[in-house]
Each structure stands twice: as C-alpha cells, then as structure tokens.
Amino acid sequence: MKKVNEILxxxxxxxxxxxxxxxxxIIKFIELLPDKLKKGVKFAYVKRExxxxxxxxxxxxxxxxxNKSLINDLLKQANIANVQELRxxxxxxxxxxxxxxxxxxxxxxxxxxxxxxxxxxxxxxAKVEEIRKLIKNS
Length: 138
Description:
Layout: H1 4-13, H2 18-32, H3 35-38, E1 41-47, E2 50-55, H4 58-66, H5 68-78, E3 85-90, H6 122-137
Parallel strand pairs: 2-3
Antiparallel strand pairs: 1-2
Protein name: DUF721 domain-containing protein
C-alpha cells in the first residue's frame, strides 16, 4: 500500500494539477519578498499570464508599485507559469477580526500547606504564612 506522501507527490507531478503547483510556487514567491511587502499581501493568483497581488491596504499598493522592478527580478528567478506582467490591487472587503477568547489557566493546588517556616525575618515570615493560608483555602 502506498504512503500518503507518495500519492501526493504523484498528484502534484501530474500535469492535470498544474494549478496546485502554481499556487505552491506563488506562496514560495511571496515568502521571498521583503518583510515590508510580505505583510501587505492577502493572496496572489495567476490569470492570463498576469500575476495579481491582492493587498490589504492602499499604502501597500504604493509600496508594491515603487518596488515593481525588485518584484520583477524575483519573478524572473521564480519562473511562475509564464507570468509576463504584475498587477496590484486592494480588496474592498473588510476583514472581520476574530476575538480571541482568553481562557484563564487554572490548576488544582497540589500542596496542602504543610511545611515548616524557619524564616527569622518577621515580614518574610508573615508573607509565607499568608501563602500558607491561601494554599489551605484553595
């Protein structure tokens, strides 16, 4: 029986699944971009030998237009699906930010508060006793 890796590599090399290879190459290409450009890219796709970059903000569009020659040089090295031209646009859909739920970390106290307090300093001795009370109450 074949392993999953073998099946996926076979499918990836099949010419019928050329889009999968192109998309994987585009993702690698986006990773090659400088950080200031990479942050603004939502996704990219190829259509009629044009590589479209969908950007998240108009400022990124100006940055991409300014660095178009750098991106073209990187594109020639990547050789993505006979891409001849680059285009950038900003999406008009507003992303809804998901609120991350902060779950407080709780744990069961494993100590019973049974220990000897040999501290001679009165302030520290009182603090340790407060900690002992907290442990016994939990």
